[in-house]
Amino acid sequence: MDDNNKNTVIFTPPLGGGGVSIVNFNRPSVHNALNPSLMRKVIRFLKRAENDASVRVIVLRGNGPSFCAGADLAWMKKSAKLSEKENLEEARLLSEFFAAVKQSSKVTIAVAHGNVFGGGNGLVAVCDLAYGLNDTRFSLSETRLGIVAATISPFMLQRLPVHIYKELVFTARKFDGLEAEKIGLLNKSFETTEALDAYLDKTINAILNGGPLAVEGSKRLIDNLCDREKAPQIIEQIPKILAEVRVSSEAREGFAAFLEKRKPNW
C-alpha cells in the first residue's frame, strides 16, 4: 500500500541556526523500506536544501527498529505486474533518489541501526560519512529475491573493494556493524546509541567549525577526483582552484581569525 498521505519522512530544519537538518525515515512498521512516496519527499527536500545556506549538514536516520531495510517488498511485488516501461520509470526514480543524496553539496551522514538490507546499503554508501551500531545487521540481499543489485552497485564500489563486494552480493550473507567498519562501508561502529550520538555530535561540531564554502568546495573536489572521467581535468585545475580560494573573503577571514586567535565569523 502506498502511503502518500502519511508522514513517511520527518524533516527537522536547522534549529537556532545550528546548520544541521535531520531526515528521519518514518515507516517503522516496514523497517523504513523505500517506496516512491518516501523517495520523492527526500528528493524534494534535498532540492530545497541546495538553496538554503543555513543547512550545512544533513543527517539521515530511521525511526523505529531499523535504518532502512531496502526497497519495500510490497512495492516490488506490485512492480512485477507493471509493464517494462513502467518498471523503467520506477527504476529511474530509485536512481534519482540515490543520486540526489550523493550529489548534494551538503555534508551527508547516515546513521545505521537495526536492519540495513539491499538498497539500504546503497543509502549508506552514497552518504559522505556513515556510522552505525555494532549489532546493525547488513545484507546485500537482492540475489535472494531473484534480482540484481543494479542501482546501488556504482555507489557500493566507491566504498568497497570489488572482491569484497562480489562476495557480499553473491552470498547475500549477513554481516554486522563491526565488519561494516572493517571493510569500509561504515566510518565507525559503536557499541551503544549513546556512544554513537556523542561521536556524531563531536564530528558535526568539527565540520561546522570549518568554513562553509571551504567544506563544500572540498567535498566537490574530492568527489570530482574520484570520478575517472573528471579527475584528469580537475587535477590540472587544482592550482587555479587554490589560487581562487586563497583570495576569497572566507579564506581572508579564516587566516585573520587564526592569527588573531579568535573564532571566525561563520
Short overview:
The protein is 48% helix and 14% strand. It is of the alpha/beta class and 266 residues long.
Layout of strands and helices, then pairs:
Layout (H helix, E strand, L loop, with lengths): L8 E4 L7 E6 L10 H15 L6 E6 L10 H7 L4 H19 L4 E6 L2 E3 L1 H8 L2 E5 L3 E3 L13 H4 L5 H10 L2 E2 L1 H7 L4 E3 L2 H16 L3 H14 L5 H16 L2 H11 L7
Parallel strand pairs: 2-3, 3-4, 4-6, 5-7, 6-9
Antiparallel strand pairs: 1-2, 7-8
Question: Overview of this structure, please?
Answer:
The protein is built from 11 helices and 9 strands. With 266 residues, it is α/β, with parallel strands linked by helices. It has 2 domains: 9-207, Alpha-Beta Complex (2-enoyl-CoA Hydratase, Chain A, domain 1), CATH 3.90.226.10; 211-259, no CATH class. Strands 1-2-3-4-6-9 form a 6-stranded mixed beta sheet, with helices on both faces. Strands 5-7-8 form a 3-stranded mixed beta sheet. Strand 1 (9-12) and strand 2 form a beta hairpin.
